[in-house]
Amino acid sequence: MEQSMQKTALVCGAGGFIGSHLVNYLKNLGFWVRGVDLKYPDFSKTTADDFIIGDLRDPILCQKILDRPFDEVYQLAADMGGAGYIFTGEHDADVMHNSATINLNMSYYGSKAGIKKIFYSSSACIYPAYNQEDANNPKCSEESAYPAAPDSEYGWEKLFSERLYLSFNRNYGLNVRIARFHNIFGPEGTWKGGKEKAPAAICRKVAEAENNGEMEIWGDGEQTRSFLFIDECLEGIRHLMDSEFTGPVNIGSEEMVTINQLALMAMEIANKKLSLKHIPGPLGVRGRNSDNKLIKEKLNWTPSVPLKIGLAKTYSWINQQRAKLES
Question: What residues make up the domain containing 90?
């Protein structure tokens, strides 16, 4: 098929976990895809038709990559990581400056380039900390974002950038779609080094532990979260992009578990019995769970794959990665 006959997509952050999976997904749908990132994907070769290594904080690069009115642009690039990166406070200035600069560039130059539609990946971290103090009854419905009080500078930047894209929508007609991701996980995600999310960290710890040994959990392990498998995240993005709904909308699972329960689930998958050693560590909010009323109403879709199925796939992949490093 001629490139001019194909739909075109630009994926910013295509070297990252969600971005690299998104490139594969779009290629399978028949798109011509350009990826942009500071690095190539860590665990597999990119399937993008064109991949540009570059810094999206640089306005000259942003103008260069937006050389055509792309049918779809996906802005996932951000300075981010798991709780060990976001909640220590040591990276706040970089997180805010780097991510905000990328979004200021992409909204401005995207509107100039006449792109047809842009997706922005926001986060559940925008929700007020005061609504997430009860581990069993967190409130994360979309309208509850205000009065604003995110629990981290990462969340504040995400909330600012939501407003940025909506402003460009109102003033310049930029056709935007905004999703608030809730803990997306799966194979080919960061699984060691400090930027990994809870499912990957738990799977790694279980894989590394000897049977009947112990594993460390930050805090008392009774903090709650929901986790969404990558395949369902991509499906949710597609539903949003194909709709007339701007958002913001939650893309996450409503299957809430404690971190202790997540650890027990990983042990069951690995067929190991371990004791939990609770230690001090950065925790974030006490409870968080996706509220899927709005996505069901607007898109007639909600995630449905049980957490354990995705966790089993993730555990298997992390165990293979660990075995490769040891061999």
Answer: 7-184+228-251
Which position among 74, 109, 120, 154 bears the catalytic label?
154
Same-domain pairing of 103 and 144: yes
Q: What are the C-alpha distances in Å from 89 to residues 86, 152, 193, 278?
A: 7, 8, 17, 22
Residue range 37-71, pLDDT digits in tens: 999 999 999 999 999 999 999 999 999 999 999 99
SS3 296: helix
Euclidean distance between CA atoms 200 and 326, whole angstroms: 18
Integer Rg of the chain from CA: 19
Q: Which of these, 73, 95, 93, 70, lies nearest to 82 by C-alpha position?
A: 95
Output the furthest CA–CA distance in the chain (Å, rounded).
Answer: 60
Same domain, yes or no: 124 and 204: no
104/69 Cα distance (integer angstroms): 18
Nearest to 188 by CA among 78, 53, 23, 32: 23
151 and 127 part of one domain: yes
Closest CA to 73 of 116, 127, 10, 146: 10
Q: By the 8 A CB rule, do 220 and 113 touch?
A: no
Rounded Cα–Cα distance for residues 244 and 153 (Å): 30
Encode pLDDT of 22-41 as tens digits: 999 999 999 999 999 999 99
| Domain CATH code at residue 58 | 3.40.50.720
Q: What is the pLDDT of residues 169-186, one digit of tens each?
A: 999 999 999 999 999 999
H or E segment to which residue 265 belongs = helix 259-270
CA distance 47 to 57: 24
154 is an active site residue: yes
pLDDT at 283: 74
